[in-house]
Structure prediction request, 536 residues.
Amino acid sequence: MKRTGFFLKWMAAAALVGVFGVHGGASADRGAPDEVVARVGGDPIYREEVLHLARFEMGLERDEVTGRRYAEAVKKAITNHAIFRLVQEKAPNLIPHADRAATLAMARDYYNAYYARVAMPAARKRMTVERVMEQIPQREGLVFLYQITMANGQALEELRRRIVEGEISFEEAARKYSQGLTAKVGGQVGGVARSDDRYYPDTLRMLFDELPVGAVSPVVEERLGPAIFWVKDRKNAEEVRRAEAENVLDDYVKADARNYCWEKAYEYADASPDTELLIQEAEAQKFVDDPDRVVFRVDGRAYTARDLMARSGGRVHSLKDITTIAENAFRDLILTRLFVTQFGEHEAFSHRKNALLKHYAARLWFREKTADLTVTDEEVDRYLAEHQDKYALPDRVDLGVIYVKTEKRLKQVQERLRVEGFEIVAKGWTQNKTLASRGGRVGIVPVSKVQGGLASVEPGTVLDPVYIDQGENPGYYVFKVFRFYPAEPGTRANLDEEVIGGVRSMVMAEKRKERLSALVEEAMAGVRVEVLGDVL
Prediction:
């Protein structure tokens, strides 16, 4: 490995311009996929590799990888490649894990390709409207209505005349004059069945059997008063089922395509003695405890729990989680084999595999090199002392409250407070279940958050009731001040565990960032980097 000082000079120049991109016009759209955009120690970095990296590390679509974003992606690709070279030299045992993690990530791409190119067309042939209708129970016929309701029958008769003669549309009339609940939506009721008990049977008989589609009914006396109806459409039971089937057909096709993928995967596994899934949820703990235990084999190649965790970023939240990850990865790898057998390797994926391999090698190397990092209580204390602008505790008050909706109930509460303790009354009388279960205790809040202030209030005081008409619970509030707490520095002793946990996470993040910088510097030390084109 030839070592020069070129990279450090290049990094210094990059720092002066932000992240590369002096010209600000570097674009991922220039050149062919196999265009070399940089060299690290003589090894080429391809444009297509940079685009793939920008997607899975930066979350950018291809058309977004331009200008400084493209320059940043090139920088990441160069860094990853340099770390990959270092891992090959100093931790070659990580390369197989990185390769399997990359293969697993690629398998999801192949799964998506198989799903789109094979499973969806097959599902569209298998899952017709008629087949979906078989899975939908019998439905009633429906009449699709618009309705206007008015208290004054004569005024409604006059409004109907105007609608029939074309002076005003039914929907506009409903919005302007209807006194029913559907006025805001132009009187639209939707589909109504013969069994709908919102309407009288004689009205339903007229709407289903007598009134033509498009006609406006005469004024009829309905449950909510005089009403007229416009029949927009009418469907018999079979038409209703077909319309429902057509609406859900796409969802059924997608579900059937997913089932098709599982069917093909397990057909392949059953026919291949060197392809087997070894994990079950009941025994998943064994794989968590022993990450080098084989989870499954596909065509004789073994994959371990460590490989799965490398692929998922080391996040396994439950035994069901690792089982599901394993099952999906097993399926994806088999479908990769089926896709490649039928169509050949996907030409767009070769550079993606290289980018993923370097990505996972860098991730595993970093995880291994930061495994020894810990955060001590002293470091937490130091961080808190340096950031008291965020963690200092203000003047606080421990409050309780009884909430009631009416003045009558408020008087009853006030009478009870004369003979019973605040918390007992709160449990029995406050009209908020959460507050009642806590005996009215709100908890400790900053004094500044209390409207009106508490300047001259003594601890133990029950305040005069106030009426608050804002928010979701308008009504009367009776507050009690249990105790005051003066302002003080935030420490491990008086801050919530969740807050202290957040501080530990931030301290750890800083330590990991420092270690990462040192690892990147080690990887880049003396490595000759050439950036081609107008990225710089």
The chain is about 50% helix and 15% strand. Residues 1-29 have pLDDT under 50 and may be disordered. The CA atoms of residues 460 and 477 lie 16 Å apart.
